[in-house]
Structure to design on (1186 residues):
């Protein structure tokens, strides 16, 4: 079947099998950041934004994305760069395989709630598993970013 | 010692930003998509013989290229264990066997043009199984009339006490002193059995491999592996082809934790490629990882701990029954750590010890290597026994440990008589006690609503590489403009060893970290390295890096001497240049590099290889506070504090994250990660939906500090960090739960049900 | 893996209804559970183009479209007020935000899964499901009916006359529950739903009049005992029947007392 969608801002028209999953579709269309970590919708590695909402691309039919806008980390590099350096400063990226999923969901979190508490961060990212970092360093990184942002905002305009 | 500029600093990992931004880095990202898809047909039975197998229908599916069965593979046995040859793990595998030994064992290899074709063909292979009675209970495995490996070409290459006609993968007894006599003389003997489950590494990237024939006609393997060199050897033995025909490399690895220290998946696409000449890939599903992977060895540990009323721990007797499952991988070696890395913690006043074990074959998923490698299981049992002793004596478990722990300078009879040259365990305990506010938080506190808070403690040790076995090498070369290429055979699996070893180069060569480019691991181009396991990379390979840098400096001085018209002895290396000691002339590194590329006969590339006769243990103390809901049995981890002695932390950030990650895996093992079998031997926790690893809501708050010692045999005084960090949560949490509930849960995981039902049972008397 | 030959985004409920009459066709909800099934069907029917993703207030209560994701239930202030926060409490532990952005209320109720937090809560709420052809059916009846070939379009939640509370026990924060408990207390009595038994949720009232004299620590405990006695429990990986029975007493008592505390 034919579908038409916006992938990272660019219109894409493609012919697909009806049961193609969105994760396989985007990986085949230049978005290898989207990872598969399970078959049971538990790991969060495949998180993409569909019409701005974070969803598991392993559980969305590509056909369902027809007519919608899909964003992956490939298309949100600048927004990610704002905060991921703070996670790098903690060494919390570790193996990196879960990173794109939780970076995408962190983008969604910060859009929805620009000033989250630690508990709000934990709750929002609960569906993003990481086996390396023990999560604490990821939290420190996001917290450091938020603190830096606040400090910058508090600076009197020169 | 001069002040360090790069070592000991929290440098960013060299690959951090690219990983965080999702750039292509892993096997599936960097290998061609256009290749054969390989899938494995797996046994539905725990024990069966293939009577007949018909692949005709499967091959009729359009796009199918090959279906291989046991009739197509070589008939000589090997082991998947990534260990130095000759491997202690008996050679007991064929690529495909007529006998199937666990639910999930490989029946056939299918290769086709598309995922869909192969998935369809999987259902069309007709197999007639002769279903046999399986050996499922490790207690009755030894000398069971049913044999897991009755075959005559089973072979044990090392004297590990293995005997396939007894279902024994290994067996041994070691002792020092008369343990029975000392136990008989003790005031108190703690005597219990502890049980741990075959937990899964559950790294986020499942096993996966891409294979192709390269332009030289060699088998080129790109795999997510910790062991490129062992893999080359194992593939060669399994396929029956020369090692010179195989080239193995690894891109970034999406987590390993020991899982990828075993050849789990590589053989299948390699076999397909070797047979068909076509590129192939195999990506394990999560279900395959959970049921046909290489998990921790299930162990049952019988500990008898003898002590006097004054708290002096005098004797430890540990018997471990380890379940290696259907195959031998890491069976004979993991079990050793259950005693040799738990008993020595109490070297302080120990008069006698005995450590005996049996490792048995059963018809369940074969175990393998998982962070902690047997020490985790042993420390759970021994540390729990010590906590039970403290409770029986009514003394502070911290004070009890301070009385009995191993201290710097002691010889550890249970640790191959090695001397604890660098041991800050006492300082770890003191600091952790202070950090945790132990005296205030150890007493059980009632929070109302049926909730109580309580604390637990545990110590741990591990090793740093395998003494007398592991080999680490490094090659460093001067390149244009004076930057360095560091080439290693160790595998960075997210741990950051590429960066850590580069920090050592930067320190030795007195340059910026950005001036060091790292590559590896590649079996063709990297210098030999056993691989990244056994907490060896920083300690063993790090030392090789240090030595390679010294060699390179000498070469640079030789080259500079030619340029400056003097003798090398008259020169010194300053980092940016080589100059005459009298200060009259110098040549910059950039100029030296340029000179090295024109009419030059002096090598500016040095390789060093290192192996250590000892394996200095890192030490650690962990303290946990939990809240127990006494009406539901629910345990919430509130706070975990740990202090680690890893010698010199080369990169404190990465050491900290290693520790935090290990603690959370340990919390998972302690509280959630369970494995159940059906009566037929099928694993029920075959997905991340059923096998629950901790989320960020399950771990409370973590805080990690370091108490450094200086290990004289390690690079910059470093020991190891990678494995020890998983060892304290199980005993510490079990301790806190017992304090809160009065119930000692001696079988992991500690589920709310075990706690509540234990409390109800106790209440009924 | 779920495989199929055809995907249809239904243009009308009648079209969806007609398509779902065939045994080889399947209606999609969030597709989270469906895609894990190793199953081949002919056509999957997507309701996402039918505007069933609205939460509307009516004089009698709230009308929730079948395609409303659990995350929308969680964030909805009107439903929070209606349920004293129990709505969000009942779904916030389900896997993660991305999962709840996909999982739908219609899928959850149609599935009548044993583990369902949503089913437990909506039972206690006295919800009524609306089927395109079958019309309105009280959830308490619907829960025990066989899977019908009809389109679940909406669920209606009546205005609540009293207080309610939701408590679930999980072995791990985002796992399936070991036991769920939703209690609604109003002038007309008590509706107590107990789910993840592990069989699908069951509804209890206070036929014995244990709470007739009001909710006290004693009466709440007595009702907890009553609920545990009058509910069937089974065993699965997450807990035994005995453990669930013991939990039931505690969760029911706590939920009742929470309703009282709130008041």
């Amino acid at each position: 079947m034919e579908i038409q969608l916006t992938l990272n801002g660019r219109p894409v028209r493609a012919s697909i099998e009806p049961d193609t999953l969105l994760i396989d579709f985007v990986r085949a269309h230049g978005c290898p950041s989207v990872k598969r970590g399970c078959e049971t919708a538990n790991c969060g590695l495949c998180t993409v934004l569909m019409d701005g909402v974070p969803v598991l691309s392993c559980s969305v039919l590509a056909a369902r994305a027809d007519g919608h806008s899909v964003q992956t980390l490939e298309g949100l590099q600048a927004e990610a760069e704002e905060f991921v350096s703070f996670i790098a400063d903690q060494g919390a990226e570790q193996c990196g395989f879960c990173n794109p999923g939780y970076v995408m969901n962190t983008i969604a979190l910060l859009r929805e709630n620009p000033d989250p508490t630690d508990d709000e961060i934990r709750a929002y990212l609960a569906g993003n598993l990481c086996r390396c970092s023990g999560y604490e360093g990821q939290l420190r990184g996001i917290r450091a970013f938020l603190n830096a942002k606040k400090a910058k905002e508090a600076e009197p305009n020169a | 010692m001069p002040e360090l500029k790069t070592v000991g600093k929290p440098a960013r990992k060299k690959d951090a930003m690219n990983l965080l931004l999702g750039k292509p880095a892993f096997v599936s990202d960097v290998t061609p998509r256009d290749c054969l898809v390989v899938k494995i047909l797996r046994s539905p039975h725990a024990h069966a013989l293939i009577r007949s197998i018909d692949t005709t229908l499967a091959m009729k599916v359009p796009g199918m290229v090959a279906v291989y069965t046991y009739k197509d593979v070589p008939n000589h046995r090997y082991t998947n264990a990534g260990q130095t040859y000759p491997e202690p793990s008996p050679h007991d595998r064929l690529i495909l066997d007529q006998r199937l030994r666990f639910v999930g064992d490989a029946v056939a290899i299918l290769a086709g043009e598309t995922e869909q074709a192969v998935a369809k063909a999987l259902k069309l292979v007709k197999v007639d199984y002769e279903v046999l009675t399986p050996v499922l209970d490790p207690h009755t495995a030894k000398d069971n009339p049913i044999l897991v490996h009755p075959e005559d070409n089973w072979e044990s290459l090392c004297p590990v006490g293995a005997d396939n006609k007894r279902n024994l993968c290994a067996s041994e007894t070691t002792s020092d002193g008369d343990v029975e006599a000392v136990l008989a003389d003790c005031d108190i003997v703690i005597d219990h059995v502890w049980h741990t489950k075959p937990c899964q590494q559950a790294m986020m990237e499942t096993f996966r491999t891409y294979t192709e024939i390269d332009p030289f006609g060699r088998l080129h393997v790109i795999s997510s592996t910790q062991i490129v060199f062992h893999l080359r050897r194992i593939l060669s033995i399994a396929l029956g082809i020369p090692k010179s025909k195989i080239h193995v490399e690894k891109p970034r690895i999406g987590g390993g934790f020991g899982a990828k220290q075993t050849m789990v998946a590589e053989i299948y696409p390699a076999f397909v490629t070797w047979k068909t000449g076509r590129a192939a890939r195999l990506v394990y599903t999560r279900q395959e990882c959970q049921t046909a992977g290489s998990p921790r060895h299930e162990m049952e540990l019988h500990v008898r701990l003898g002590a006097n009323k004054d708290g002096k721990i005098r004797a430890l007797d540990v018997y471990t029954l380890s379940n290696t499952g259907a195959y031998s991988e890491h069976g004979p070696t993991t079990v050793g750590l259950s005693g040799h890395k738990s008993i020595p913690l109490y070297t302080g006043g120990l008069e006698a010890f005995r450590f005996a074990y049996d490792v048995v074959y059963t018809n369940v998923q074969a175990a393998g290597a998982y962070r902690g490698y047997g020490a985790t299981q042993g420390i759970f049992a021994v540390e729990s026994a010590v906590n039970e002793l403290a409770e029986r004596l009514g003394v502070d478990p911290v004070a009890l440990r301070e009385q009995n722990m191993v201290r710097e300078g002691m010889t550890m009879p249970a640790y191959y008589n090695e001397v604890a040259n660098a041991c800050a365990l006492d300082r770890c305990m003191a600091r952790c006690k202070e950090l945790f506010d132990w005296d205030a938080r150890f007493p059980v506190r009632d929070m109302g609503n049926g909730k109580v808070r309580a604390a637990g403690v545990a110590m741990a040790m591990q090793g740093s590489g395998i003494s007398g076995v592991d080999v680490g090498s490094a090659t460093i070369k001067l390149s244009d403009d004076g930057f360095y290429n560091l080439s290693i055979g160790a595998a960075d699996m997210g741990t950051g060893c590429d960066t850590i070893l580069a920090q050592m180069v930067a320190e030795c060569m007195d340059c910026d970290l950005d001036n060091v480019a790292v590559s590896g691991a590649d079996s063709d181009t990297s210098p030999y390295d056993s691989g990244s396991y056994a907490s060896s990379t920083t300690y063993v390979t790090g030392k090789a890096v240090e030595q390679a840098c010294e060699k390179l400096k000498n070469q640079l001085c030789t080259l500079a001497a030619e340029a400056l018209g003097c003798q090398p002895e008259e020169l010194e290396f300053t980092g940016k240049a080589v100059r005459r000691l009298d200060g009259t002339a110098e040549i910059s590194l950039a100029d030296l590099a340029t000179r090295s590329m024109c009419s030059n006969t002096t090598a500016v590339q040095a390789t060093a290889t290192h192996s250590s006769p000892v394996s200095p243990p890192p030490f650690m103390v962990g303290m946990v506070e939990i809240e127990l809901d006494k009406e539901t049995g629910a345990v919430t981890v509130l706070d975990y504090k740990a202090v680690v002695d890893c010698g010199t932390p080369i990169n404190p950030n990465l050491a900290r994250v290693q520790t935090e990650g290990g603690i959370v895996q340990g919390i998972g093992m302690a509280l959630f990660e369970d494995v159940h079998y059906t009566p037929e031997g099928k694993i029920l926790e075959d997905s991340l939906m059923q096998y629950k690893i901790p989320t960020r809501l399950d771990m409370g708050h973590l805080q990690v500090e370091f108490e450094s010692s200086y290990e004289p045999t390690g690079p910059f005084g470093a020991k190891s960090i990678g494995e020890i960090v998983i060892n304290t949560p199980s005993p510490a949490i079990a301790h806190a739960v017992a304090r809160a509930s009065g119930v000692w849960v001696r079988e992991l995981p500690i589920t709310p049900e075990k706690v509540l039902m234990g409390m109800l049972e106790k209440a009924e008397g | 893996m779920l495989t199929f030959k055809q995907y249809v985004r239904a243009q009308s409920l009648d079209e969806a209804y007609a398509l779902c009459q065939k045994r080889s066709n399947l209606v999609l909800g969030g597709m989270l559970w469906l895609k894990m099934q190793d199953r081949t069907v002919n056509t999957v029917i997507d309701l996402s183009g039918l505007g069933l993703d609205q939460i509307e207030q009516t004089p009698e209560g709230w009308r929730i479209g079948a395609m409303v994701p659990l995350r929308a239930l969680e964030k909805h202030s009107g439903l929070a007020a209606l349920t004293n926060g129990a709505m969000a409490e009942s779904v916030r532990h389900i896997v993660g935000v991305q999962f709840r952005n996909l999982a739908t209320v219609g899928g959850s109720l149609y599935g009548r899964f044993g583990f369902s937090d949503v089913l437990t809560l909506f039972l206690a709420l006295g919800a009524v499901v609306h089927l395109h052809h079958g019309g309105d059916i009280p959830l308490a009846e619907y829960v025990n009916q066989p899977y019908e070939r009809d389109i679940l379009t909406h669920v209606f939640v009546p205005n609540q006359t009293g207080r309610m509370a939701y408590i679930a026990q999980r072995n791990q924060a985002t796992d399936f529950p070991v036991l769920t408990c939703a209690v609604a207390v109003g002038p007309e009595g008590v509706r107590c739903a107990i789910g993840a038994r592990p069989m699908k949720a069951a509804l209890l009232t206070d036929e014995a009049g244990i709470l007739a004299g009001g909710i006290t620590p004693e009466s709440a405990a007595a009702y907890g005992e009553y609920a545990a006695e009058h509910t069937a429990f089974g065993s699965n990986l997450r807990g035994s029947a005995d453990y669930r029975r013991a939990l039931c007493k505690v969760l029911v008592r706590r939920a009742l007392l929470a309703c009282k505390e709130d008041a």
